[in-house]
Each structure stands twice: as structure tokens, then as C-alpha cells.
Amino acid sequence: MQRRRFIGGTGAALAAMGARPAPASPAETSSPGGSAGAPFATPAPLVPMQARIDRIVEIMVCTRPFRAAGPRIEAQQWGRQTVVHNYGHGGSGWSLSWGSARLAVELALTTREKRLAVIGCGAIGLTTARVAQRAGLRVRIYSRELPPQVRSSMATGVWSPSSRLCDEAHATPAFRRQWETMARDSHQMYQHLLGLPGEPVEWREGYVLSDIPFGLPLPEPAQPEASAEPDYADLEGELLGDLRPRSVPLAPHQHPFPVPFARRYTQMVFNLPAYSQLLMNEFMRDGGEIVHRDFESPRQFAGLSERTLVNATGYGARALLGDESLVPVRGQIARLVPQPDVRYGITWRGHNLSVVSRRDGLLVQAQGDGDFGNESVAPDRALAEAAVRRLAGLFGRGSAA
Ligand SMILES: Cc1cc2nc3c(=O)[nH]c(=O)nc-3n(C[C@H](O)[C@H](O)[C@H](O)COP(=O)(O)OP(=O)(O)OC[C@H]3O[C@@H](n4cnc5c(N)ncnc54)[C@H](O)[C@@H]3O)c2cc1C
């Protein structure tokens, strides 16, 4: 049962825990200095997060474009035009984007057209445009919004390829195979984006904290009577175990947090402002064009000069195409002033709290009640402040302000 599985930092952190059998505690497996003589330096103490509500610089709210059947990646013939749909990636759009783009571009290439229109400039539209350019196409993006106004810019930005992607009933073996291909393709692409100026992508550490042993399940939070939230498919299991560094259990003296159980994990983080900028710059450098356009109806596609289109409108496809299989899943993140020395994240099991440290700030995330089916993007300040206060509790009450 993953109904309330917390996406973003937490989902990724928990996935990192479960992929393979846990190794013994480092306290049991390492002897200081080993047998070779001089000891290695002990790690420096962690710089505390300044968890104060006066340091909230932005409350970002957006919706995950969830489809019970998973992303829609298929071609349709509309008159003289071929429209390839590429939308509905739930809480995994950034993580799956490159693999999903490749599938969409393969469909587009079958038309043999040399020019491609991409509708949308979020994670999916931008990566589709880049993959198409690499395949030799001339690409024009038509979009209502550009980064940083697109919903993709409000995401957490961690590798979370199976977060709220589809429900259990639709996770057939064929779907799982396609998903694994997309995830592996994307993961490989991200390895080529490491170590670049501005650090668009980097590996960072984090701590999963728990009041009870990790082997024990947390009690399921009560669901509102009317909640239609599905059982999300648990796609990862063993499938991507080789792509994630394993988390390690820590003894109480090996971490500073006031909780009895902790594990350290390592995860891939996308610094979305720098990463989006990089994608935009590369798209323009390779001859891409961007046209500001708000489509009120798909019939307006017929007025475009391109005969092959990719529809990457994300949640916008619900209004544009009347696709009611798209369900909004609201998410909110409070961004705190950046702390460059804080290079770790936190997930506190059972306390509705997850923090990802990015170059542009500390992203503090908590779930609200009734996020599923909720398309409101109005910030909930009280929820954000409560999460920051819970975080402050991990660093001593003095930092709560
Ligand atoms: C709180 C939160 C945290 C998340 N964290 C992560 C994470 O850590 N990792 C991860 O992989 N995913 C994460 N996600 C999911 C991810 O953000 C989405 O899957 C992704 O943004 C979807 O991208 P998209 O390009 O399909 O949609 P969008 O970013 O919404 O882009 C759609 C584009 O289409 C355009 N458009 C829409 N309608 C029209 C129209 N009618 N005419 C013209 N243009 C139109 C828009 O202007 C925009 O350019 C998170 C989501 C949320 C809400």
C-alpha cells in the first residue's frame, strides 16, 4: 500500500532504503584507520539548517499530472498532421523526461518530416525538443509559459522515477518494461549532466530519520472518507536497484539528530533553475525557436505549419483535450534562503516532512490533506510554517523563530 507514500525527497529516500538488503552498520564493518595504518579524516560535523519561518522566501505550489494508466505516449493522425502525445508523468516528470522524450521522438520520426512542433516548454517539452534536435530535426516550441513559470519549475528536483506515476492495476509487465527503459535512459543522460558549471545535476546525501525501527511499517494516516487516491504502483522494487547507492544504517553516535533511528542515503538532485536554463540555452544554440502561444482548442493545431507535433502540455492537456483521465495532485514546497554549506537533505518518517538542499535554497515539503484531485495552487502558509517548525525541532528549539 503506497497510497500516502510521500513523493519527492521522501519517496526517493525510501526507495534508496529498500532496493537491496541493508548492509551492516558502518560501526560494525569499519575499523578506524583500517589495517593500513594512518586513519582517514572523520567527517566534519553537519552544518545545521536554519529552519526559521522568516527565511521562507517562496511558497511554490503546483499539481502533478497524474494518470492512473501512466503517461500517455502515443501518436494520433489528425487530418494532415500527426500528433504525438507525451504527457501525464505524475510526480516523475523530470526523472523520466529523457526516456519519455526518446519514445515520443521515435514516433515522430516515423513521419519522416524534418520539422517538429513541440507544444509545451516544461520538463517534458524541453527534453523532447532536445532529443528531436539531436536526431536532426528543426524544432519550434509553442507554449503558453516558459521556465520559470511552468509547473515543472515548482518541483522538488530529485530522481524519483516511480513517484505517483500510475496505479497498481495498470502496472502490467509491459508497462513495467517500458517504464524501466524510460528510467534507465533518463538516468544515463543525467550522468552526462554532472560536474557542469552551475551544477545542474549533482549527487547529494540525506538522512532518513525515524522514531521506530525501519523494518516496522508506519501507521497509515486516516484518509478523508471521499478520497479517491489510488494505490500507487510500487514500480521500483528490484528493477532499478543497481542505479541507486544503497542507504546505510547509522548508530546514534554517527549522526546529530534527536531520533533513535537514522539512515544515510545518496540521491541525485536537479538544481532546476540552472538545469532549465541549460536546456533552454542548448535548445536556442542548436537553432530552436520559441513562439508564445496559448491554444484554446486542439483544432488550432491545424493552423501550424508543422505536420508533426508533440503535445507536451502536462496537466494543461486536461483542459486542452478534455482528457479527464488526468488528475491533479497538489504539492507545496516552502523554499528557504540558500545555505551553501548545507549539502544534505532530511526525510522524517511519520512526521510529514522532507527537505531537499538545492543551490537555490532549502526545499521544505509537507503534504496537505486532500492533495489528490486538488488543483488549487493557492499557497497554504500555515502548512508551510508548521513544516518549518517541525524541522526546527530537529536542530533545537532556538532555530524555530
Ligand atoms: C510538489 C511537486 C514536486 C515534484 N517533484 C518532482 C521531483 O522531485 N522529481 C520529478 O521527476 N518530478 C517531480 N514532480 C513532477 C514533475 O514536476 C512533473 O511530472 C512535470 O513537471 C511534468 O512536466 P510537463 O512538462 O509535462 O508539464 P508542465 O511543466 O506543466 O509543462 C506544460 C507546458 O505546456 C504548456 N501548456 C499547457 N497548456 C497549454 C496550452 N493550452 N497552450 C499552450 N501551451 C500550453 C505550459 O505553458 C508548459 O509550458 C513534482 C511535482 C510536484 C507538484
Count up the helices. Answer: 8
Rg measurement, Å = 22 Å
Uncertain spans: 1-9, 19-34
Structural class: alpha/beta
Question: Keyphrases for this structure?
Answer:
401 residues, alpha/beta, eight-stranded mixed beta sheet, six-stranded mixed beta sheet, 24% helix, globular, binds flavin-adenine dinucleotide
Describe this protein's structure.
The protein has 401 residues and is of the alpha/beta class. 24% of the residues lie in helices and 24% in strands. The chain has one domain (9-20, 46-220, 228-399). The radius of gyration is 22 Å and the shape is globular. The two termini are 37 Å apart. Flavin-adenine dinucleotide binds next to strand 1, helix 3, helix 4, helix 7 and strand 11.
Question: What order do the helices and strands come in, and which of them pair?
Answer:
Blueprint: H1 9-18, H2 26-29, E1 56-67, E2 72-78, E3 81-87, H3 93-109, E4 115-119, H4 123-134, E5 138-143, H5 173-191, E6 201-210, E7 248-250, E8 261-270, H6 272-285, E9 289-292, E10 308-311, H7 316-321, E11 326-336, E12 344-348, E13 353-358, E14 361-365, H8 381-393
Parallel strand pairs: 3-10, 4-5, 4-10, 5-9, 6-12
Antiparallel strand pairs: 1-11, 2-3, 6-8, 7-8, 11-14, 12-13, 13-14
Helix pairs in contact: 3-4, 3-5, 4-6
Please outline what is shown here.
By secondary structure, this protein is of the alpha/beta class. Helix content is 24%, strand content 24%.
